[in-house]
Write a structure and sequence with these properties.
Length: 453
Amino acid sequence: MTLTPNRLTNWDSFIAELNGIETIQDPNQVAKLSQDYYTFSPVLVPQLTGKVGDLVVRPANEAEVVQVAAVCAKYRVPVTIRGAGTGNYGQCVPLEGGVILDMTRLQGIPWVKPGVVRVEAGVKLAQLDKKTREIGWEIRMAPSTYRTATIGGFIAGGSGGIGSITYGQLRDRGNLLAVRVVTLEEEPRVLELRGDDVQKVNHAYGTNGIITELEIPLGPAYPWVEAIAAFPDFMSSAHFGQALGDADGLIKKLISLHADPIPTYFTALRPYIPEGSHIALLIVAEGSLEGVQALVKEYGGTITYTKSAQDAGKGFNLAEFTWNHTTLHARNVDPNLTYLQSLFPPEKDLATLEHMYHHFGDEVMMHVEFLRMGGRAVPAALQVIRFTTEERLNEIIRYHEERGIFIPNPHTYILEDGGRKAIDPVQLAFKQEVDPYGLLNPGKMRAWLEREV
């Protein structure tokens, strides 16, 4: 049994065996569908630029996915699975060419029930939310790329987002109920993983199975109000954010803090941001707004903007200035900027956060997203960094880690190095079972690269 993917030079017979499944061979389109937003990282750019697939295949249903998997296994062709390509770490960039498996035509929503939905992998999150809201429910969390991201891509490459202040992260038990996976074998199998077994493919970059359907829990669809609160100093905004995160009676979806000068990158928001101020971008339930206003005042802030639930969908969406979109807006102004991802220790006095804010100054501009972790509101940062050299970036990372700050490094395409920094034996064992030839997104899983053959 060979464990080395094959680089085909003549694709005619391969395409013939797909029996009419949609393919794309135009070099410009193939190149476009081989990319994501790895350009956020000046470290990844030289490593991933020019990495493209040979062929894009767009199955329309699970049966076609099974057919594609069988043909790829037969020819030992590497397969890189793609949703909307909104990731930032090169998750869907093919390192060894081969097939780009575009899952965006799998658009079915088999059923919606109170508190849970069954959905195909290619459905966009905004489309899914619109459907579930018809019965008064919504998806629990979403990335800032909510309008374009697919549910399969979010599960395979994401970790949390807007809503994580209430529901934690995707890897937390209960946030993913079931996944349906196609194996990459000459006779592919379709497997249903439920309960804790979903962790075998959760946030695995599509390295160990092709997700075709998912079952995810839903939350109550409150009427949400958006608000901007401005503060005269950053730590006042930070203590406000912690207090709001800890306020059990106030229902919230987003607590996003931005130290000056980050707000200057938000062109559309400038009329609502006093010069030199530090801001909190908030999404809270309509019934909680009065309490949030009182809390803002308590910490010396001022509400400068609100948008009612009735006006949702009109004008800009504050969520699209948070999480990874913060870096996007900053880079639109200055493409030399990059970012970091940090999980701060749960400290009520926010001493470590305050130290890091003052230590680096404007070199590492503080952007904090509060999320729920272990039952507590914890600050997670996506700092905006003035990049100079890779060596200096690594110094900044080391300084954080030496002070107990966990860094999910966004400047690597290796699954484990960018995540929990440890090999997951469960994910490796599952890959060995379902991808015996190592064809799924090769080069991204350290556990597979370093295994004993």
